[in-house]
Structures are given as C-alpha cells and as structure tokens.
Structures
1.
Amino acid sequence: MVVFDKPHALTDAPMHYCPGCTHGIVHRLVAEVIDELGIEGKTIGVAPVGCSVMAYNYFACDMIEAAHGRAPAVATGVKRADPENHVVFTYQGDGDLASIGMAETVHAAARNENITVIFINNAIYGMTGGQMAPTSLPGQVTQTSPYGRDTNHCGFPIKVCELLSELDGPEYLTRVTVNSVKNIKTAKAAIKKAFQNQIDGKGFSLVEVLSSCPTNWGMTPQKALEWIDEKMIPYYPLGVYKDRSAAKEETK
Amino acid sequence: MSTKQFLFSGFGGQGILFAGKFIAYKGLMDGKNVSWLPSYGPEMRGGTASCGVIVGDETVGSPIVSRPDVLVAMNLPSLDKYESSVAPGGIIFVDSTLVSRSVNRTDVTVYPVPATQMASDNGTPTLANMILVGKILKVLNDFDEDSVRTALGKVISAKRADMLEINLNTMKLGADY
Amino acid sequence: MITVSDKVLMKGNEAIAEAAIIAGCRHYFGYPITPQTEVAAYMAKRMPKIGGCFLQAESEIAAINMVYGVASTGKRVMTSSSSPGISLKGEGLSYLAGSDLPALVVNVQRGGPGLGGIQPSQSDYFQATRAGGHGDFKMIVLAPASVQEMAELTVKGFDLADKYRMTTMLLADGTMGQMMEPVALNELKVGAPVEKPWATTGTKLEREHNIVNSLFLDPAALEQTNFERFDRYKTIEENETMYEEYLMDDADIAIAAFGIAARVSKNAIDEARKDGIKVGMIRPITLWPFPVVPFRKAADQVKAMISVELSMGQMIEDVRLATECKVPVTLCNRVGGMIPSPEQVLESIRTAAAKIGGAN
C-alpha cells in the first residue's frame, strides 16, 4: 500500500534546494493542490529570479521563467491570453516580489488580476548568498547588513499582506508558515483556497509563506524552524488579512 | 495644380487641424497624393496649433511644410511666425477679426477675411475655420460643391450628419466673401 | 473609418494599431508616452469590441513583461512606446530574445538622451540594431517611410516574428507617427499562421511540460543556444533584407537614409537632378538585417555617399562597414527633434558633387 507518493504535478527532477529549506515543502503543497483540483493540464506557472528560479524544472505543468520581479506582469499576460482556460500562478521570493517587483505586485493586486501568487518570505536573499531582503527583520545580520539591519539607515521591513490589504483590489491575502505539521496543513488549505478563488473567477489571491533559510541564516534546520516562531511570527503575524468573499458572506 | 503646400495655423481650438484635414481629404477625393502633419506636444494646449498639408499629383516626398504656397493665419502669433516662410508668389489668408496688422510681404497675395466675426454673425461661432476654407477653395478655383460635400462627409462623423449642411453653408459664406 | 476608393486617411500611429488588429493581434499592453499614445488610444477603443485585450500597464517594464506572458502562450501580442520607454523595455527585449519569443515592439522615436524632447528623432538606431538589451541578440528592425508602410511593416513584423521566433521592432519616429496619409488597408497581406508547439498553453496532460526560459547555468549549453540563434539570424540576413533604391542606376552620389530622412532626401535628390547632379538613394527598410548588398554594389559605382540621419551619425557606421570604406561617406544630420530640410540635404549633395568633380 502506497501511503506517501510524489504528486503528479511534480516532475522527477531532483531539487537543488539546501537541506532544511522549506521551498521543497511549499512546492509539494502547490503540486498536491494542483492534483486535487485536477488542473495540471491547464495550469501555467511563472517562476521568479531567486532560489526558486528553477521551479520550472520541478512543476510538471507548463512553466515560464520571468525576469526578476516581473512574474505578476508575465502572469497577467498569460492569464489574459486565455482567461477561461488558463490557471496561472506565480511563485516568488521576498526580493523578487517585495523589492524589485513591488510595482508589479501592487498593480496586479490592485487590478484584482485573477491569478494565484505564492510568496515565499524567508527574510533574506538566498540565491545570491544571504543579503538583506526587504523583509529582513530589524537587527537581522546578513551579508549586506553585517552589523544587523539598522532601521535608521535602511528603513523597515515590508509587511506585504498588511500593505496589500489596504487596496480595494485583491480577493484574498493570507500569511501562513510551514514550520510544523499543523502549520503545513493550514498552509495547504490557504494555497488550495488561493487556486480555487482563481477557478471561481474571484481574483488576486496571495499566500505569504514564512519560510526558513538555514544556510543563510546560519542555523540548523531545526533551529531555523524555531526562529520562525520566535522572531518572524511576532513581526509577521499569521492569519487572513483579506478575504473579500468571506467578508461578504458575513455581512449577509 | 501640381503640388501645393498648405500651412494652417492659429490657436488650439480654432479648428486648425480640422481645416487641414478637410483639405487633405478633398485632395484625396480628387485623386491627389496627400499628406497631413500636425504640430504636436504641449505647445498645442492653449498655444499655437499648426498643420502642414501637401496636395499634389506626384508622390509626396517630405511631409514637412517649410515653404508653404498657402498660409492660413488665424491669429497674430501665427502670422508673425510664418509670414516670412511663404513661398514667393504664394497666398496668405488672414482672419482679420483677430489679426490686427496687415501683411508686410509684397510678393504674395493676401486675402484678409473677418472669419471669426462672420462665423459669429452666422450663428456658427466655431466655424471660422470653414469660412476660411471656403475662401481658399474659391481663390484656388476649386470650390466644386459635389466634391466639397463628399469630402465633408469624410471628416464629419455620421452621428453628426446635421453638421454637414451647416459646414457647407458656412464655407459658401467664405467663398462668396 | 473613412474609405475613399479603398484608401483611408490615417495617422501613422493609428495605421500601426489597425494593421496589428488585421494581423490577428488581440493583445496590446502599453504605457502613455508622446508621440505614440494614439496607438494605445486606438487599441483601447477597438480591442474590447473585437474580444481583444487592451491593458494600460503600470510601467513600460510591466507592459513588456505582459507581452512576454502572452507571447509565451503563442498568441500575437505587441507593445508600443517612444525612446525613453523603450529603454525601460530593454530588459524585456533581452528576455524575449533569450526565450525565443515572438512579439512586435514599436518605437516611435523622439529626441534624446534622457527625457530629451518629444519631437522626431532617429537616435535610437544603435539601441535598435545593436543593443536593445544585454546579451548577444538581434531584433528584426523595420523602418517605415510612409503611413502605408507603417501598416504593411506592422503586418510583416508579426509574420517575421512568428517565423523566426523573435522580436520585430518597428522603428518609426514622431513624424511618421503623427502624420496622416492615405492607406490601403485592404492591400495588407497576412502570412499563414505558424505552428507553435513550444507555447505554454497547458499540457492538457497530453505532452511533456513546455518551459519558456532564458536561464542556462551550464555555459556550454548557453553557448549552444547562442550559436543556434545566430544561425537563425544568418538565415534572416540572407532572406529577409529589404530596401528600396531611388535613381541609383546612373548615380555618382548615393544617399543613405531611412524613414522621414528618406522622404526629405527624395525632395533634395529631385532638386539636385534638375541641376544635373547624378544622385540616387538607397533606403534601408530593414535596419537589421542591414542591406549590405546594395551598398557593396554601390561602393563600386558611386564616388561619394551621404548618410542623412536624425542622429549624430549612427547608421553611417553600417554604411561604412557595408562599403568597407571604399568611398567617402559624409553625414548630413539634425538632432534633438529637428529634421534636416531638403535644402540642407541639397547643400550636402552639392558639396559632395564639387569634391568628386562631377556635374556642376
């Protein structure tokens, strides 16, 4: 009896992620959702620039590699090319989505572009070797904030869900994490809802996933997962920041 | 007519571009080669608008009208700016309601027409441009009513068909001035 | 639209938009910038009525990436802009090239550098033919010299883009965009559709996944993609070069000019011919691939060449390369939004004629 198998929506390509990195978990969750919704044949994913740049090798659906930060714009094109038959998701890190691609993110959300955005927030630039990200915490030591992030000098982290929740556009904004079995289950439900929203034509759905980067944080995988609880969640509280359809239901 | 270069100029809002467009269309209807090139950019907002129109038997080379055979100056700044550029032997049409001075050039023919006043008296204050266009066609011996009507039909949208006769009659006023 | 015995009087910018629709383009993304905004305005009006998509993007960068997205699905797509906006699109142009995606990009040039001005220019020639973005790549660059050609080359541009899986750039200028001339839209001929088995339209679980990508971390693999792309470029150079010659049969002097500069030059040539000066013109229609053959041929015939440009001298380098500097090439130019007058070109012709001791 098979109790644990690879989702169909993942290829056999061995992933290049570091030991203890949570990208693998999130990839799997996205793939499971695609399987469960039966949408692999019509799904087109857009990969970012960052650690998950080669996500196009891992998802079995059609994939597009975008320029740094431009995934929401590329996804807009793909979705608009055939709105009825394309299910489109982007998979982006914090530098990609909240720094160089902030304009594309905000405007896709403001347009309520009917796409699904999976946003990996691990508070650091991983692929380039651990530089300060727009989401690096105050005081966080990185290669480009070697004395700790000095908010007097380079400002404060960007809370993407909170920021976007001020817009009238987006349908669904939620922040989850994958550092425990319980949290992984919540994360999967959120990702599934974000895809289902698109299928139902509800619009822009973004799932922010607090993730770990043991390599660049300089921690063991176990310690990194704890660090999410200790440091990240207090700054980036988990929860639903916007759910337009649910809010409408409540007011009925 | 071989090739004629027209320069229409005035304030934005006087129908300068429309007048030029009509002349271009009339040329096209008459089987000529034509081009129409407007000034563009912020100077058009409340400032001077102009457009160059070329109508000829031969293929139009440069669409830029730098030495017009026919200048239409609907305000003083336009006359000041373009008077000297008119080709010797050319024609200058001036809206004499708005242009207080006379034309200095002696090697050109000048037709002062109080177009703005006439249009106002006619109850069509926005059609001073067409008074002048009527005069131009008359002077160039090109006022064929059928051809004028057809060309007007091309520049006036079908939704505003009532404007066609009004334009035509206004042009006749200019032609008869 | 107004029809006069099959001809309509249209602005160049509008002709581009209508021709694109005729060519089957149903997706347009852009950001307002003078002097090309009529393209966007036209699309905004027409696209919703024909089931197409016009979307005003938040930036030129977003617009070109939306183009990238639609192009990935194999559908015809375009954007248009003017010089400063094209610089912003440079990133996307490189990615389109690296991912071998077809698209039409229109540049209605204005004076630069920087914010520059809004009047006509041809000073993006280098950018278009040499360095649209980072990396080794080319775009097919088409240079219309009439509103009719604005329409024809738009259609041709889509066909070429699909055929060779690359970007075609329509390189016009403010004059071409703003002027109205008669256009025969019914004469436009759209090529047969091209199969696009590489497009990312969903696997439908019937095939392996397609990947649109420009990332190759293995240098040998990346080198190979460059080699293959340049083999394709060679085919284009051999088969798609377009130019027009004017009075070149007996010419002692050849003018090289494209777009509006060619229109002005034609007037000057006609005048010079009246004086007995044997001057002709080679007008490149494809700026890349540059029409090397007629220039090489002319180099053995004429005694002088004049490059007439709205730039500080950009195409002149291609003229010198094509002629291997066998004949002297002088520059006749205006920049910053100014356009050379026929008189200025005529003066250059007379100077050249005096130097070669030809006709008076």
2.
Amino acid sequence: MTTTAPATGAPVIETHGLRKVYRGRKGTHVAVADLDLLVPAGGVHGFLGPNGSGKTTTIRMLLGLARPTSGSMRLFGEEVPARLPAVIGRVGAVVESPKFSPNLTGRQNLRLLSRSIGVPDERVERAVATVGLTGREKDRYKGYSLGMKQRLAIAATLLKDPALLILDEPTNGLDPAGIREVRDTITGLGEQGVTVLLSSHILAEVQQVCSSATIVGRGRLLASGRVEDLLGAVTRHRVTLTPGTHEAGTHEAGTHEAARSAAGVLTSAGLPCEVQDDGSLLVTAEDPTIVTRTLGEAGTWLASLAPVKRDLEDLFLEVTAGQGPGMDMPPDWSGAEQGGAAR
Amino acid sequence: MNGSWLPLLRAEVDRLRWRRAVLLLVLGAVVVTAFTFTVTAWDTRPVSDEEVAEVRQTTYVVSEIDQCTAHPRRYLGPRARGLDADEAARTCEELVLGWYSGRPTLDVASELGNGFIACTVFVVLLLLLMGATFAGHDWSTGSMSNQLLYETRRTRVWLAKALVVGVAGLVVSAVLLGALWGGLLLLASSRDLPVPDAVVADGWAQVARTAVAAALATLLGFALAMLFRSTVATIAVLFALAVSTGGLVAAAGLFSESSRWDPVTNIAALVEGSASYYVDEGLDRECYTSYGEVRGRLPGCDPERTVGAVQGGLYTGLGVVVVGAASVLVHRRRDV
C-alpha cells in the first residue's frame, strides 16, 4: 500500500475500519473491507478503483443510503449516520446515474428537491443556468440525453450551496465539450474552497483536476495521498542501448536480443526491468547511475537513459494489479454496487 | 437541515399532484362516481306522460290498477293504512305504472346499499392504487435515493408521504362520495320524493365512514409499496391476500368465528355501519338437529352475528397500523 502525507486542512471525510458485508443466499461478499479514508478540506480528491472495488458502496454509506456493517464515519467531524441530518445540508452528491421522475420536467424535479429543504425557487433557476440547461428545463426528464441528465444531477447538488461535493462518475455519457465543462466546474468549485470527492474511471481527467487521490481495490485502501507524491513514489527509467556494443550481441542479431541480454544483466543485479516492443528497456531504479554502471561493467553502452514520469493510470494499474472487477464475487453480487437487485 | 415539517410536506403535495398516474386514478374515481350517479338518475327517471299514456292503454295494466284500488292492502301492504280512496288510487296507479314502465322510483335509502356501495368499492380500490403508485414510482425510478440525499431522516420522509397521500385519499373519497350522496338527495328532492331525516343522516355517516376506509386503503397501498418497493409487487400481494385470507384465517384456528376476522366482513362493517356473518359451529348441542342443521329460532341458537362500525374500524385500522409499522421499520434500516 502506498500512503503519502495528505494535504493540509482538517479532514472533511473520515472513515475508520469501514466495512460493508452483503449477505445473500449464495454466501457473503465483502464490498468494503476495513477502509480508512481521509479527505482533507479543500481541493479535489480523486476516489479511484476498478469496478466492484467498493467506491460507490463507500459513498452510499457516507450519505446514509447504505448501512455499514462496522466501522465509523465522519463528515465535517460529525459522526454519521447519527449526525447526518445536521451536515447533509452542506453535502451535494451525485451517486451513480442520475435518478429523477421521468414524466416531470427538469425544473419540476429540481423544485421537488429544493422545496423539500425549504430552498427558494430562485436557486433552481440559478443552478439550471450554472449547468447550462437554460431553455431545456421545461422539457420532460425522460426526453433528456444522458449528458443533460448528468447536468441536471449536478444542478441538483448546487441547490444546497454545498461545502462538500461527492460526485460518482459525473462525466458518464457527456460529450467532450460537456466533460470539459464539468471538469472546469469541478476545478472552479475546488478553487472556491468546496471540497470535491470525485469518483471516476477517467484517470487522465482525475489527474488534471485532483490534488489528492485514494485508490481502492476489493474494498481495501491501496494508495492515498497527494497526487504528485503518489506519482513520485517509484521512479522508472527508459533505457535505449547503443547497437553493436553488447558483448553478446551484434547489430545483426537485432536490438531485441541485445535488450533481452541487458535485461538479464540488470535483473541479476536486482533491478527489475521489462523489454518493450521497440527494443528499449523499462528499468525500475531509484538511482539512474546504478543502471549505467551495471550495464557499463557488463560492456553494454547506453544510447540514452531518460526518466519515465508515471501518470495516474500507471499508478492505478500498478496498485490495482489483480484487483479486477468481481474477482471473487458470487454471480449474484455483480450488481451489489449498483444498489442491489434490479427492481 | 430545516427542522420544520412544512417544506417537506409541501414538496410531497407537489410530488403527488404532479404525478400523472395519480391524476389518472383520481380522474377514474371521478368518472366512476359520475357514472354511478348518471346510471341511477337515468334508471329511476320519472315516467313521461307519453310513456304513461302508452302503458295506461294496456288492458292488463288497467286491470291491475283496478285490482289494486279495490284491494289496496294486498298491493300496498302497510302503506295502505290511512290512505283515503283517492290517495290509494293515485298510489296504486304510480305503483303499477312503475312496474309496467319498467322503472323503479328513486329510493335513496336502498341506493346506499346498492349503487353507492358499488361506487365505494371502485373508489376505494382506485385510491389504494393511488397510494401504491405514489410510493412505487419513487422506487421504480430510483428517485427515492435522491430524495434521501436532501432529507436523510427516513421516518420523517415516510410519515410526510403517508400523511399527504392519506389525507389526499380522505379528501378525494369524501368529496366524491359526498357529492354522490348529495346529488342523490337533490335528485330525490327535484322529483318530490320525501327522504326521512334518519336516512339523510345515515347517508352522511356512511360517507364519513367510507372516507375513513378509503384513507386507510390509500395508506395500506402506500405502506405496502414502501415495504416491497414496487407497485406491481404490492398489487400481487394484495391479490394473493384477497384470495387466501379466508382460508388463512380459518387455518389459523379461528374456526367457528372465522368470518369475524375476515377483512371483508370488517371493512363492510366500517363502511356500512354493521355487517353480519354466520357461525355454523360452536353453538350449544341443542341448537343442532339430528341432521346437523342449526335450529336458529331457539333461544341462544341464532347463528347470525354482527360486527359494528367501531369494531370493523378498529380491526381495519389496526391492520393498517401493523403494516405501516413494518414498512417504517424496514424503510429505516434498509439500504436504498
């Protein structure tokens, strides 16, 4: 597990030993396993994990939609779900796909929510304008595209003027322009001091907007901390060999043979490496001089050695290796994260 | 969040009135009520002069009127007492012409037990569906989870919805059945048919009791739909219960008095003021003939029993409270 120092600020979300076990006729399934989650105030926090890793279940428990089997949770320092009514007014959330009444208009759906908490109707108009639905708010929800439904769901979160925004895959179904708009909205909210917990599969996007991230797999915490710290935790280098310089290889034997031979040398020296399709080597080493010295001593000269900067996708794949979707789930648990059996 | 119930209730009222299925069901109840009134008014419309003239020309009608006038007690029964010859002749003519013109005179007292009850059954069933679809729609669309992100106190959400839909059931049924009863009274008045004060009061009391029954039915539909999270499942369960309740009650060991605990008996008692049922077991030995038949006329052997409105109301109300309590408890604890 990779854990780095979190960003400064009092935590807005805290979970300790959070656990959720679903029991069914075909056995039990642990959706969340003793998860310790810490989301500091301010900024955008990515919440990443493969399908079935417990992200949505965790979010649903935080919002009182699902009951934890054990463990504790806090929002704004308040114990939830016991004190959830006291803090829910500061929390906006989109969980899974947007869910509204299909025969009502977008505006009617928002008004039902705003009126239930005593928010004036003017805020509905403002939220509609913020997400760019002005002109379409009088249309029935069932006629909306998926992107418009997502926008409406985001508009609904803005009715509360939230200090914490929990967004579960908010860009699902959006076109590139819509994705950029949502990304800009999220970034803007983060800059305004709103804490955003962003659960997403689009890792490049998360990397663009998130200041910190948590990666979970099979309901367990795999990595957490500032994005720059997480990405800098392991350094890799791409090595290109000079053709014909290796003692065991010739130019004619081909670059790949030379690379494989060099890889054997590096591996024997305790430096993990992989031969890439283009004949280069990807070597994991904290200090690049060890690579040059090891290969030099073996009579292999380097044409180039460049540090490889990891992105979130590399890190994600690295820490979630073997944490694929539903690895040990019984068949009837495939929909557990989506809120149970279809109705 | 806001501690007041008012915003939540207001939102639920909007949710109810904006729901198309609810409006259609209420419209259905209006149509059923209007249809009942129209059919009653048409079937009991006064015989026109042309019709009377036509019928009066028929030989056997003239003969029947003459027979009645000559022997009024034979035809009119106790009503013949105190009538002078002219009154008896007029009454006989109305009676016989009524028979042969094929239309009865409007009798609002008997309508309470006929057309009014039929209308009541339809209205109550439609309102039960209204309660079920009000809750079922929230689950089928998934909007319940969205609502709970704004008001997390689930008991409060349940109660606010129940209050709104229950009051709606009460008001809709009271207005419709009140209009039906008031319409029948006006119709009788317009036809110069006297209605005793006791019948008028009975009718209004029945409207009030029916409105209570309708509100309970609406709440039952709502509570079951919240429990099963589906309108279709609720209807299926209610259908299964309707089919099997009699057998279940009997199987529960309540043998000789099983009808006492039959929901139909109790709901009928609530609506009509009282309902009778019969026992064929558990009477004294001397109440039975050697063939096992009940000697009903012997003292203490009458097999007929009566359930009053209060008893029926308590039974029905308690049933709804039990289902409602289960529904609230499950709603409080269940993952959404």
3.
Amino acid sequence: MNQRAQVLLWGAQRISAMVLALCVVVHLLTMIYAVRSGLSAAEILGRTQGSIAWFAFYTLFVFAVAVHAPIGLRTILSETFNWRGRGLDVLTGAIGLSLAMWGMRAVFGVFGAGAA
Amino acid sequence: MKNDFRSRNHPAYWAFIVHRGSGVLLALFLPLHFWALGQALHGAAALDGFLRWTEQPLVKFAETGLVLLLAAHMAGGLRLLALEFLEWREWQKTLLAAAAGVSLVAGLAFLLNLV
Amino acid sequence: MENLKVRIWRGTEQGDFQDFEVPRQESQTVLDVVTYVQRKCDSTLSYRFACRVGVCGSCAMTVNGVSRWTCRTHVSKVAADNKLEIAPLRNLPVIKDLVTDMREFFDKWARARGRFTGSTTRKDEFARVSPESKERKRVEAGIECIGCGVCYSACDVVSWNKDYLGPAALNRAWTLINDVRDTARAERLAAVAGDAGCHACHTHLACTERCPKGLSPTAGIAGLKRAVLAATLSGEI
C-alpha cells in the first residue's frame, strides 16, 4: 500500500471515530432506556420497524464501524505478527466488506421483519 | 532488548491497553451482535427466542461487560482524538480521568437498569 | 550506609547480569555507581559518558527497567531498597555491556529529513522571526532535544515496527516544519508520512513520560499527523 493510502486510512479511521462517538452515545442511551423493563422483540421492533430515522441511523452506524474496525485490526495484526504487505491489506478490505454486509442484514432485519 | 512492565507502568500506557483490548473484543463481538439482530428476518418469534436466552444471569453479566467495553473504547477514543487534533501540553491526565469516569458511569447506569 | 546491590548487563544481545557490591554514598548518581564498578571492580566494563551534567546525552541507560540519563539520576531516587539493575538502552543493538549501536537512531533523523534546508546565504540579512509567533512557540517546545535516545528506547512502537522513525526524529522534523526559513516542507512531510512515520504513533506518551528534558515528542508527532493529512488532502504531497 502506498504512503498516500496509508495516510488516508489513518484519516478515515479518525473521521469514522468521530461519527462513531456520536452513534455510540445514542446507542448507549437507547440501550440504557430499552433494558429498563426487559428486552423483547416487540419492544425493539416497535421502535425500529418502518422507521426511516432509525434505519438511516443504523446504516450510518454500520458503515462507520465497517471503516473503523478493519483499520484498527490491520494495525494490530501488523504490530503483533510483524505482518506487512498485500495479504494484510486484502484481509483488511475483506473484513470491512463482510462487516458492512453482515451489519446491513441486521439493519434490514429490524427495519422490515414484520412485513416478512 | 525490549521494554518490560516497569517501563510501561504509567497511566497513558494502561489507557492504551484498555483501548486495544476493548477494540479487539468489540470487533469479535460485532458479528455475533449482527447475527442476533438478523434473527428478526425470521420474524419476531425468532428474535424473542434469542432474547429469552439472554435472560440468564451469566449472559446479563457479559452484556454489562460489553457495555463497559463500548463506553471505555468510546471515552478513550475521544481522549485520543483530543490529543491528536487539539494542541495540548499539560492536561492529558485530566482527560484520562474523564475518559475513565464516563465509561464507569455508562456501565453502572446499564447495570442498575438491568437488575 | 548499607552497600548497594548492583546488577549490570554484560555481553552483547546475548549475555547476563553480573552482580556487584558498591558502597553507598551521599548524593550518589547512577553514573557514579557504574564508574565505581569500572574503576574498582572490573575494568573490562564498557559504558559511555562525557559531560556528567546532563548536557551531552551520552550516558543514557536502562535503570531498574526505565530509560534514563544516569548522570542526572540520583541513586536515592531509583533504588529505594538499595538495589540497582543497570542495562543498555532498549530497541538498539548492544555493542558491549552498556554501550549500544546508535546508528539506526541517527539514520532515522536523516530519513525524517532532520536537516535544515534554507534559501539564503551568509550575505543576506538575518531572518526576523517573532518569538510570539505560533510557529516559533511550537519550535520552542521541541528544540531542546539533545539526541540522547531515551525516548527511542522507551517507545513500544519502535519495538513493534522496526521501520518506525521514532519520537526524536519526528520531533526534529516537527521543529523544522515550523521553521519559517526552511524550504523543504513538502519533502519533509512526505518523509514522515504513513505507517513507518508519524501515523504509527499510538499516543502511549512513553516518550513524553521519559524525556529527561521534559519535552513532549507526542505533541509534535500529533502536529505532524495533522499537517501530513492536510497536505495529502490538498495534494501538496
């Protein structure tokens, strides 16, 4: 990976971190609110089903984490196993792509489960 | 020769350990989390089946741990963003204390609500 | 006073600690202890020092696990139980006993373009730089580095990433980036960018914690991270 790409990866991790900080605050508050009277599918889906706002929020959340986590893992793998080069970069990209797809599956799950 | 714990024994290094540890654990947990919510694709009953499993005390305990990890990673991350993007000299230790405080409060709030 | 129990590294990368007993004295420094061992116990012990007063930066070693200047470290400060373990600096090849090969440390200063590049000659007027300007204040914060290698030895990122330029070289680059007379800004930003440069720093603050001059290379490295990102986005590098 060229130097320019390395700098942009660093930047992407920081930008995504800023987005995630906001998302996580909302996520923590929602969780603390939601578990007050026990979690149920009705309670979760009642909030999220058909809600464009929650759909947009969780989509942003998933994409931010799909950018943020793989970049961190790339650094950790590189430092821990002294691993550099193309294989590491391909793996990083694959982790990001999988997280995004797997995460969006969950978002569609809670957005439209009732219709199914 | 490399450094050992005697050299690493200072607050910012502990903060690094917490940040790296929580980051790795959260990354490992994410696929599981997405799988669980994806159960809703099979209808509300499937999701409820999973949520009943989470009622066990041990699972609840682990959940509180995850909330704490998330809060710690976020608070520690905000600290790092401040150190990297704001010009600073002397207030980094205050920032560290604030980060620890925020994550502890979030964890406790979740725990109190849960039980 | 009780004798000091001193363990000193003998050998190269392979080797072992050797035990010595050294009389405890008032206001004794760790360098005094090493010198006593070399003069009275074993004249084959190798170590480096020159000024003995914290100016030259050549006597840095690892004392009870922590990188320090031995000349400015009082025994009373580090050997509460009368025990001292003295080893060479970390992260550098050991030549013999307490002497490290510092070539890679200084080569990295060169790689980070740690050399001033100007556009004027001795026939030109002096440049006027206000001590109050933002750039001059940033230079002020980092300029007192004497290249002792303590930060390089304390840094874990150096251990994990052999190509990493390290705190001292990056601190030097940051002072030059803020030198308004310097003309190699773009080349220097490119030299310190990416995985082997400033962006590898994890803000452990080990260098800031251990710098005997009380500098914060971490703050300078953070400045480089921002400057390089901005230059990359704007197409300057």
